[in-house]
Protein 1
Amino acid sequence: MSGLRVDVELHRAEFSLRADFEVAPGEVLAVLGHNGAGKSTLLSVLAGQLVPDRGVVELDGTPWLDTERRVHVATHRRGVGLLAQQPLLFPNLTARDNVAFGPRAAGASRARAREIAEHWLTETGVAELGGRRPARLSGGQAQRVALARALAGDPRLLMLDEPLAALDVDAAPAMRGLLHQVLRRQETPTVLVTHDVLDAVVLADRLLVLRDGRIVEQGPTSEVLSRPREAFTARLAGLNLLAGTASDGGVRIGEEIISGRVVEELDAREPAAAVFAPAAVAVHRDRPHGSPRNALPVTVAALEPRGDVVRVRAESGLAADVTPAAVAELGLSAGEDVWFVIKATEVAIHPVPGGSSGA
């Protein structure tokens, strides 16, 4: 297929990486895992900064790496765009000149590079800051400029390495929304490395989970997070996710509408997801009446002690964290039919990449 194809093995004294996956043109693949899982190592292999012991990295049929044929394309010739945790802008250049740097280095005229820079500064919402140097930009503004710089080079592969990790709680949601808007217009494959499951929910078409240098799960984002096949992935997810289409301040899933707080403006019938924490879920034997809450019928699959709470996991993949006293009072056990009830104020409604399936 066209797009990115990766099949590599890398062994070091303290760590090994084994990865085999593909990313289609225009697709966003999120790589999720704890610290030390191998996420950054994988990006280094894709960028050409690390050479694996064995394997192939191929983009649109062109080999960047083929150890058997002794092919290794240097980093600067791969056409990779990178947005990292820190903006890493040149401090002596204005925002405009930072963005124009890539096109100029690729041979564009000064006028053409400036035109490209202005376009991407506008696309990322910071056109009015083009004359400022990095020291006069906020963290969120600098990261927007860094995104513009990554895109201005017309990358063949876009890599996002924890792009929101260094932003404060006010700047991160706006940047996440911007990335969602920008990425869905891209035709190149994108690899997003993150430890935040919300980044994967909002930005990624597909999800790949790494543990100790091995892929333990991969597939459509909503499917992996709502129906994890491994306990590790379920713990990593840590959130409930219901995917459907936007409708009247909520998400329509079949005949049901899950109401919540709309985080980013949505068009009717646009792919969207309702996201909420297990701690926000109350468990009832009967459906509550006369209350503006979301109520979902579920069948209990398992009860998992977790410190001071018990996680009630449903066969649908949804989870609720309740007290041991509540479990005893309700007489819960596997196979029981109950209601998961969530206040609308505890549910965040996010746009998601098209093609996601409901939970």
Note: The radius of gyration is 22 Å.
Protein 2
Amino acid sequence: MQATIFHNPRCSTSPRVPGRLQESGSEFRVIEYLKTPPDRAMLTVPGEMSDVEVRGILRTEEAPASSLNLNAPEVSDEMLLDAMTGHPQLINRPIVVTDRRTLLCRPAERVEELLFFD
């Protein structure tokens, strides 16, 4: 399996995912998403290839989320995407992207779902 991991090395969960992929023999590249944010297209993976909705990858506890009022239920996916692309610290992590599926790996053990995905 080839994968891309959108990762933050300062996160307690994110650093465990590359280790598990390496153990499995998977090829992967790591992108520190705070330095190189994912684009809007990556954040809007088709539903059948992703386990979460746009709101599901929003880090609601980050300061910009409350100051931008992003936790309000009437905030659209488009507004959330604008906020996340402008403030990548709002993106939950780690997100692992393969050619067959995209998964938010919280907890880190969720990466196992990608390793055994049919």
Note: DSSP finds five helices and four strands in the chain.
Protein 3
Amino acid sequence: MQLKTALLFATPCDDEEDDMATLCCHSDKGQMFLLTRYPDEDTVDLTLDDEPSTLDGLTVTLSAERLLIEVAPGDRDALKGDAHLEILLTSAGSDLDEVALTLRNILDGTGTFVSEL
């Protein structure tokens, strides 16, 4: 599965939301992607459009041009049957340092973060 977006919005620790880390975007076709985790939880929540899923482990790779989310075989329903979601960044407007920090917070102890920055 593939989406294109101009911006990734990242919040490494939202004080107003019990320190939840959030990464989200809207695709050029209006699709919504949301990845969240509270610091005291062992799972990550992924929402694609309006369909939330809870994941036990995933791998996320970040580069200047894309974000690649890979899920375990048992979690493919979160991505409508696909093994991965590739989000292509169509502009340089995202704060990739903040995106990387947010992903580290989300995946710490629950998944794997790979930075290609």
Note: The longest strand covers residues 20-26.
Protein 4
Amino acid sequence: MFRNLLSRLFLDNADPASLPSEDAEVAIAALLVRIARADDRYSTVEKQRIETVLARRRGLGHAEAAELRAAAEMIEAEAPDTVRFTRSIKERVAFDDRHSVIAALWEVAYADGNRGAEEESMIRLVSGLLGVNDRDSALVRQRVLDDLGISGQ
């Protein structure tokens, strides 16, 4: 099952119109895992935050969100690069919704209370690849910090 999904997400010759929108959501989930793992500390609180974000984005229950996160962990570990995730997302997710993807990434990055340089660098890369400029990403980050009740870092 995961091999088929990886093939659909990462084949260079895949027709974006033939990819189900669920594949983009799985790519987002895997990208959330990649951000959380970027600083080489993948904590329980980050896993829980990923599940919260996935449940909110997809209207999932706790068990379904945990299952999607576990699947995303396997997919992320097998994925060759971040560019392929973002390409899948960019082809299947409307520009306006990409800001919510960036917000989810910031939310996961701040889940453990640390602003890791590796996580921040990865989010800047992903933002650019998704067509979201640095200014907009910074505004999204500030909104996330406000929502989380964290003073600007």
Note: Residues 2-8+21-148 form a domain with the TerB-like fold (CATH 1.10.3680.10).
